[in-house]
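Usage

Read records sequentially. Each one opens with the input sequence:
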Amino acid sequence: MISDLCILKPEEKPRTYCVSLHQALQSTGNDATGWDIRFADTLQTTDEPTSSEIEVLRELKRVTEAAHSQTETA
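and closes with the structure output:
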């Protein structure tokens, strides 16, 4: 599971554990979630997104917001 904070891997249902924190969020942790995060013994850092990945994400956000605004007015 990929979130805006980290990458989580499944363990035994319904539990997951963090295997990679996004670089900008190294100082956060349990404070940013509603539960205690379990961390892998060897925690990795997620690579920064490339400029082309950021462009794709911004376009996806734009399209999603446009679709949601059409639903709200319908």
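Summary fields computed downstream for this record:
- Residues 53 and 59 are 10 Å apart (CA to CA).
- DSSP finds one helix and three strands in the chain.
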